[in-house]
Amino acid sequence: MSRVAGSVEDLAAPTTFAPLMQPTFRSIWLATQVSSLGWLMQTVAISWLMATISTSDLMVALVQASSNLPAFILSVFAGVLADNFSRRRVMFAGRCLMVIASAMLTASVALGFVSPWMILGFSFLIASGGALNDPAWQASVGDMVQRRDVPAAVTLLSVGFNTVRTVGPALGGIVVASFGLMTAFTVTTLTYLVPLGTIWRCKWKVRSSPLPRESMRTAIYDGLRFTAMSSEIKAAIARGTLFGLASIAILALLPLVVRDHLGGGPLAYGTLMAGFGTGAVFAGLANGTFRRSLSQERLMRLACVACAACSLSLALTSSIPVAAIALALGGAGWVTAWSGVGVSVQLASPRWVVGRTISIYYALIDGGIAAGSWVWGTVSQNHSLTWALEGSAGALLLVAAAGVLFPLRERRESEPDPLEEFDAPAVALNLKPRSGPIVVKVEYLIAERNLEAFLDLMRQRRHVHSRVGARNWTLQRNLQKPMQWTETFRTPTWTDYLRLNHRLTEVDKELDERILQLHAGEEAPQMTLSIERPTSSARKPYQSILHLPRH
């Protein structure tokens, strides 16, 4: 619930607020803002409660770790659930967990049963509900709005959260200072009920696959493989993880800055958090303008420099106004950085795997944030708060320089949707869904003059097929008939073979047509489908082969 992807287009454009014309998206988006307001109030209350009952700098910093660690542990599984089950039900289950955990925390505070580890435990449970909800919610955006509105919808997620951030922490500080922790926790629990009721009422259409659900193991493997084969997603995740690790010191150590450097209380803490949110909102509103004149990579570097300046200022200042200005700069850098990496992942992911890629993104960046909270908390406790903030500033400058190895790439359109139109070939055997492994061979005749073009297209084909499920892809040339080339790959089961073909897009089909134009035979390339069988004595070996013309 903390970092949501940001803008890819100018907010002044007519389509920016178009997703709000969709009633379902609008209802859940508005309910989410109410919940985010409560979550920010609760963050202030939990952080300040920990700072008042614990003398350990590490325990205070671990509040941020407990809020982000669940995403690292659970997001990948949540992404699989989002891609294979009803996303609405997954969101509802996550919201239920948040309500229950928040109510238990409220009851514990009311009864006086609080301890540092109990606070961290409830914070972990609340964040676990968010880790279950977030991938399903982000993946559902493409189900609720039209494809052309996806970037604008993702922008609204960021702008909405960061708008709430401008008032949520300050409101939390006022409530804690004026009415006490019990009131803050009670109000938060009530705000969590709003999206729960909205999700219960709202329903939206999702294209269902005619194929059975993937097993958890296969789905995780497919998601990891697709992510590993996407240079865009890998670069975005790498930069996001490093940025989270380096920059989280600003938020994780802010209660200590307020208590030890500025001599303030919960109201001052909430006010400074509001300054952070104000900077984030202005950066979100101006993101489209920035993108017209600067590349996303340059924006990422500027964001790192802005957060480094914020961290260094907090280490050196003893003035609340100066700290507020520094935090506004840090908030601007924060949302600019996450806007680049978050939208890169969303737009580079086709619908069949978007829940998993988003969850892997969340898992790794939240893992970086949790690790950073522990690292900077340990540095602060063993050395000094100033050392920790200065170290964070230095690390952020290194993240800016990491663009040489992991540059962010520009993308204006999302990945095309799969055609999901495939007529399964007739086979002579009665195959079961789990029958396999299936071996696919396609034979081509390629003239020498077309060889370089053919090899270039086949490299693209290998990438396309491997990322949608093909395994052990190879290309072989016949030594006795040099014009004959054989493409071979495997799928674990017959269902996986069908699923592979359902995931291909129109662009992928166009690549097939370009390859066919290079085929020199009078007939179409011949495709052979086989099923492997073990050759052990315990089972009679056989191999079924089906020859099919490839159209």
TrEMBL record:
Q: Does the keyword Acetylation apply?
A: no
- What CDD domains would the database entry show? MFS_MefA_like (cd06173)
Q: Where is the composition biased (Polar residues)?
A: 528-538
Q: Which domain of life is it from?
A: Bacteria
Q: How does it sit in the membrane?
A: Multi-pass membrane protein
Q: One GO CC term of this entry?
A: plasma membrane
Protein name per the record: MFS transporter
Q: What organism does this protein naturally occur in?
A: Aminobacter anthyllidis
